[in-house]
């Protein structure tokens, strides 16, 4: 379960405001009208803001969570996001350079050929 879903399942009067953003009653104080805002960050973190003044630590303690529960683990974060756009661009550049050289009839060195094949594999190019 991701951090936001884990947190939301422990709150009351949860209502989605917009995609990736919810409002709920804060469990850390006697909240009759929802004052806790929960937002899912791009990296999967659960971001909390209680307009009643409660700290994130107080909110977590009130629902039986620890601060680390608001974050994805490193292995889940890496698997969920995949390679960065910068890494994809780098691999694509290697492929383009190698293919341009091959189209000109110039051979690749053994090292360049191996790197070209690795870049194609990483990009999923057949």
Summarize the structure.
The protein is built from five helices and four strands.
What does this structure look like?
This protein is an alpha+beta fold and 126 residues long. The protein has helices at 3-8, 56-62, 74-81, 85-103, 110-123; strands spanning 12-18, 21-25, 36-40, 46-50. It folds into 2 domains: 3-80, no CATH class; 85-123, no CATH class. The protein has 5 helices and 4 strands. α4 (85-103) packs across α5. The protein is rod-shaped, with a radius of gyration of 23 Å. The model has no long low-confidence stretch (mean pLDDT 90).
Keywords:
4-stranded antiparallel beta sheet, 126 residues, 5 helices, alpha+beta, 4 strands, single chain, 2 domains
DSSP helix fraction: 40-55%
The sequence of SSEs as H and E is: HEEEEHHHH
Sheet with the most strands: spatial strand order:
1-2-3-4
**Any low-confidence stretches, pLDDT <50, length ≥5?**
none
What's the layout of helices and strands?
Elements: H1 3-8, E1 12-18, E2 21-25, E3 36-40, E4 46-50, H2 56-62, H3 74-81, H4 85-103, H5 110-123
Antiparallel strand pairs: 1-2, 2-3, 3-4
Helix pairs in contact: 4-5
């Amino acid at each position: 379960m991701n951090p936001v879903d884990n947190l939301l399942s422990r709150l009351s009067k949860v209502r989605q405001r917009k995609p990736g953003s919810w409002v709920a009653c804060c469990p850390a104080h006697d909240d009759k009208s929802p004052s806790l805002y929960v937002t899912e960050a791009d990296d999967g973190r659960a971001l909390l803001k209680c307009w009643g003044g409660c700290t994130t630590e107080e909110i977590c303690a009130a629902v039986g969570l620890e601060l680390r529960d608001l974050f994805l683990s490193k292995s889940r974060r890496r698997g969920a996001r995949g390679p960065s756009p910068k890494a994809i661009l780098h691999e694509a550049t290697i492929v383009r350079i190698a293919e341009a050289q091959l189209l000109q009839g110039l051979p690749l060195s053994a090292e360049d050929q191996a790197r070209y094949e690795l870049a194609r594999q990483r990009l999923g190019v057949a």
